[in-house]
Every structure is written in C-alpha cells, then in structure tokens.
Amino acid sequence: MVRTTTPVRRVLMATVMFILTGVVIEAMSFVVLGALDRRVATWSRLQEDRLAVADVVESAPEEAQASENTQRTVEIDPVERSLSGLNRRQVIHPYVGYVEPPRDDEVARGREGRNAEAGNYGFPRNTYGIFHDSGPETLVVVVVGGSFSRQIGFGGRRLIEQKLEAAPRFRGRDVVVISLGLGGYKQPQQLMVASYFLSLGMHMDVLVNIDGFNEVVLPVVENLRFGMNPFFPRGWSFRVAGLDPEELRLRGKIEHYRDLRVRRAVLFSQSPWRSSMTSSLVWRLLDRRVHGQAFAAEQEVRELGTGDAGYQALGPSFEVESDLQTAEELVAAWRRSSVLLDGLARKNGIEYYHFLQPNQYVEDSKPLTTEELRIAIDPKTGNAEPASRGYRLMSASAPELRDAGVDFVDLTGLFSDTVETVYVDSCCHVNHFGIELVVNRVVETIVEGGNHSSRSQPEGNAG
Questions:
Q1: Residues of the chain under the 50 pLDDT cut
Q2: Does the chain have fewer CB atoms within 10 Å around its N or its C terminus?
Q3: High-pLDDT (> 70) share of the chain, %
Q4: Residue 410 CB neighbour total at 10 angstroms
Q5: What does DSSP assign to residue 127?
Q6: b/e string for 1-19 if b means 16 or more Cβ within 10 A?
Q7: Domain ranges of the chain
Q8: What is the model's pLDDT at position 9?
Q9: pLDDT value at residue 212
Q10: Cα–Cα distance between 329 and 323 in angstroms, integer?
C-alpha cells in the first residue's frame, strides 16, 4: 500500500526544510563573518560596526582595532589629514586667504546693510556687527591673530569689556570687542585683515594683535613640509589644488562612495536585517567592496598630489641653507608686518598693541603640571623645535619693534609663576584661567596707553 502525504503534511515539511535551510545559511554566514572579521561575529558588534560607518556613534578602541582587520586602511599623516579637511570648514577668500562660511543662524539674525553680522564677512560667533560709527560713546576693540587670539577675543570678551569700561581712561564709553582672528592665521594675514576691513569703512579705536606661535611653527610643520611657500596661508596647496578638474572628479567619486556606505549601513542597521547573520554578511561584503573603491580613489588623489602642484598651489620657491635661516626669515616677516600694522593704525587714529603669545615650548616659561606634561607636550607634532627657535628670535626682536614705535609686549613669561594647569593641548591653547591671565595683561597695557620702560623685558621677567 502506497502512503500519500496530505497537503498539510507537505506544507509542514516544506516549512521545516525552509527553516533548516535558513539555519544552515545563518550558521554558514556566522562562520564566514568570523573568518572575514577574524573575530567571533556577534549581533552587537556588527551593529556597532554599522553605526560607526553611518557616523551615528564613535567607534570604540576595540572596534577601531577590529576595523583594521576587516577593512583596508591606510595610515595618513595626521598633519596631512588635518590640512586636507580645511576646505570642509573654511572657504577661500580673495584678500585674506580664507574665512569661515556664514552660519545660517547668524545670517538670520544679521542686521541690514553695512551692519550685517560679522559672520557674513567670514568671522562668525561675533556678538556685534562689523561696522560701528566713530564717536566718544563707543570704544571699538578689534582683536586679530590666530586661534589663540580668537580664544581671547571670544572667551575673554566680557572681561575685556568690563575692565576697560571700569578704567578711568574709558569711563562712560560702551566697549565693543570684535574678533577678526581665525585658526591658522599668521602674518601677513593680520595685516591683510586690518587693511581689508579699513578699506570697507570699518571703524577701530584699538587694534590688538596677539600672535607668534603660528608665524614660526606652521610654516615649518605644514607649509614647507609639503613644498608650499612659508608665507602663503596655512595649507594653501590643499585649499586650491583641489580645483584641478581630475581631482574634483576623484573627490566626487570618494564622496559618492562614502554616501553609499552610510546609506547601506543605515539600512542594514534596521530591523529585520540587523538580526540576520546572512544580511550582515551581505552588508559586510558590499561595504568592503565600496570601501576598497573609495580607498583606490583616495590613492589616486594622493598620487596627483605627489606631482608638481604648480605655482598656484605652492607659490614662490623658498630656499634657505639652514633651519635657523628659515626661522630668521619668518621672524623678519613677522616683525615687518607688525611695524606695517602700527603704521596703518597710526594713519587711521588707532591705538595698536602687539602681544607675543605665551607657549609651552618656550624653555622655562612655566612650571608644567602633570596634566600639562601629558596633554600639552607632544614630540610627534614637530612643534617644539621651531617654536623654541622662533620664540628666541621673536623675543630678541622686542627692542627693534619698540624702536620702530610699536607698543610690543612679550607675554612668554606670563605664566612663569603659575603652578596651576593652563595649557589644554599640544599646540598653544589655554583654559579659562589662562585666558583671564592674558586678558588682565592686555587690558592693563591698553589702559596704560603707550610704551613704558616696564615692558623692556619679557612679561614675568621684568625687575
């Protein structure tokens, strides 16, 4: 007698076979994923990997290590990586090198006409508009320089205003502090910024220039290292070399691949795909393929950069015989720029004050705390040697600057008796306490109103 199967039994058997097949496929996917990733595949780890690609969460150290095993990576010099990303947050400016693009929220709050917010001119975060009428009721203080000056102009703005308004010399005047410094600015950018805005009709009563570190360090560790003229704006070749049509095409491909990776990671991180080892394997294989394509395009971009980038990107050739001569040339340009700023200020009835910013790489300038030794001194940056050499020459330039009429103050010894932590990174930046100490000395200088014999030596070393 032949036994027949009922429809119900056939459906049941098909369902069981389907489930068993699914289990086998999931098990095989689990094994293949483990082999690809060189670690045990888990749903949580795979989900973290997808979210990391989607830029939803930061990869933890162990995921970063795993990424080295699962994806093709390349070690990119941190300086090169930083310079390559400049165009994402700054835009080229025809006169001052570069500025920051306006922030939508600030543009929305901007006033009409010439009283538009400073963000419209590439210097966001300022509380006031750029243009103010001259008069005895207002004191317009403009701060120029690099990111350190920006710290003082923003982080110390209220303190500057309060202290100057309380000083007998400025009593009754409404103090307005405007910061026209940006990260990486170095002379002659301060000179260009002041000239540019004065040509547009900006009124200034006091011009404060706080600089030094960028002038002697960035040209060495950034510009010269990549073949750029040291007096060109920071990372100039990275800003303009991308205008090459072939590089634009490659960068477009890179952005397309990155976007594709993000969209796929978001899709596969959702239910039900995130719960399946098979779908995770499909995602991993697709992601590895696109990552490889992006990697190849990035390699092509780097290879383009190894050739002659041209005059537009590199500027005039710069040839010297030694590191000392390089430093001397940099300091001479810094000194001349300050003298020119002083002359520009005098012609326009502006009080000009020049401050040499403090820095942790200046020998014996501060008793460094354990925290500062950990976070503020980093030999890998290459900052120490050019900073030490350059600062010696800048401090030695004080008499020449003062003889030229510049009201110059050397702040390299300002923290010489400060036992608290001040520096917050391996460059030059300080915490709020450090900002307050600098502001106090800046305000004291402005209140005094001119050159004095007490400034004949670096701050903190005067008798």
A1: 56-75, 110-115, 452-458, 461-463
A2: N
A3: 81
A4: 27
A5: S
A6: eeeeeeeeeeeeeeeeeee
A7: 10-76+242-305, 132-232+317-455
A8: 78
A9: 96
A10: 10
- Note the pLDDT of residue 61: 36
CA end-to-end span of the chain, whole Å?
119
Q: What is the DSSP string of 286-349?
A: HHHHHHHHHHHHHHHHHHHHTS---HHHH-S----SSHHHHHHHHHHHHHHHHHHHHHHHHHTT
Q: Write down the H helix ranges in 54-90.
A: 61-70, 78-84
In order of 206, 254, 263, 288, the CA distances from 295 in angstroms are 51, 8, 18, 10
How far apart are alpha carbons 322 and 324 in whole angstroms?
Answer: 5
3-state percent helix, strand, coil for the chain, nearest multiple of 5: 55, 10, 35
Q: Does the global pTM surpass 0.90?
A: no
Q: Out of 3.40.47.10, 2.60.40.150, 3.90.1720.10, 3.40.50.1110, which CATH number does the structure's domain 132-232+317-455 have?
A: 3.40.50.1110
Helix or strand holding residue 186 (H, E): none
CB atoms < 10 A from the CB of 34, how many? 14
- Placement of tokens 């460094």 in the chain: 368
CA distances from 323 to 222, 270, 379, 387 (A): 14, 56, 18, 12
Please give the pLDDT value at position 430: 92
**Pair 428, 213: CB distance under 8 Å:** yes
Beta-bridge partner residues of 176: 140
